[in-house]
Amino acid sequence: MSTAAHPPLLAPTPSQLAWQRDGLGVFFHVGVNTFAGLEWSDGTLSPEIFDPSDLDTDEWVRTAARLGARYVVLTAKHHDGFCLWPTATTDYSVASSPWRQGRGDLVRELADSCARHDMKLGLYLSPWDRHDPRYEDPAAYDELYLAQLRELCTDYGELHELWFDGAGSAGREYDWERIGALIAELQPGAMVFNMGPATIRWVGNEDGLAADPVEYVTTSADLNNYDEDTIERDAPRYLPPECDVSLRKGWFWQEGEDPKSLPHLLAIHDRSIGLGANLLLNIPPDRRGRIDPADAASVRELGTALRARFGAPVVGEMVAAADGTVRVRLPEGTRADHVELRERLEEGQRVRGHRVRTADGEMLAEGLTVGVRRIHQLGEARTLSELVIEIDGDEPVLEQVLVHDATGAPVPDLGDFYAASTERPDAG
Ligand code: FUL
Asked: Which residue in 285, 300, 303, 211 sits closest to 248, CA to CA?
């Protein structure tokens, strides 16, 4: 194959590919907002209100692990500027709170729990900071932000994701060059979400939903959910999308909110992971610093349903046929109602279209991109002995084809949620 047609820049790095294969992550939004019942606060809430009574990051990580998540991301600093670690850069942090007599470090506790449970750790550090007066002075704030990032990148072991949220940052430039150099120096394997030296991008909504085609190579990404700003790059980059969504309506735990229904969560799974994007599902710790029992039950139910649907795959035996199709032989008597395709991505994303047929030519499923994984629902389960797959694109290669029998398992249903889900949170 010609390298000129496929510049290495457009292929994933090993870290990007590992991140894509991980697929599922869990977001933890917690901070002063949790205690004020707000989604956003303006940086004036007292640090005194941050006082989780029974915080247990082991429980958080166990919850994520049981769901099948491979990484978690914590809001080390949200837009309000309150830091969950005892930073030297500001006293607006856990050090000024009553929690653990001001000697606590939530980032450390989570990092330790991740190490204990073989979970990868990511951190969210909001560029927009509504507390610190230095924010008004871009040069001074860049120094502050770099110092905060340096602390996070130095003191908590290996980080797998750094989440740069574009909310509040329309029209604002940060010193991405130095931020990129710092990450390259201290955490070269970390995925960088959306802004600056990004290695992954936002899918463009907070509903957890991607759409076919899911492009891994792009020049642009949406900045945030609140205005029309897009990030335009001069040259295309390999930037696979991450779909973020909250289990509940809000990102922070609030009294009276319920988890989404199981059919809805399954639909989110199929429209993100099932389309080859990553899913970052937010499970917000409550005022005790624990997972709300209703959320824990919902996540358990989701994990059980996903295992019932996809926990016992049958791997097909692939043979390239002379007519350019891929024949997939399945063991005698295989029953299936889902087919999953996986593309070889080491040289980049190549599949531009695909069709799955039975040996008799009956069309079972079709679509555009495949990517790291593409799951199709086939309707009623049926006995299949061979699949014939056509793929379009520039030297596309399938790595694996699997089938699943989800008979009797809960069924995904997005219902009418989609239209109602993209509201701006109330500013605090
Ligand atoms: C948004 C933020 O404004 C929300 O509060 C939340 O953190 C979400 C993940 O990103 O842009």
From this structure: 285
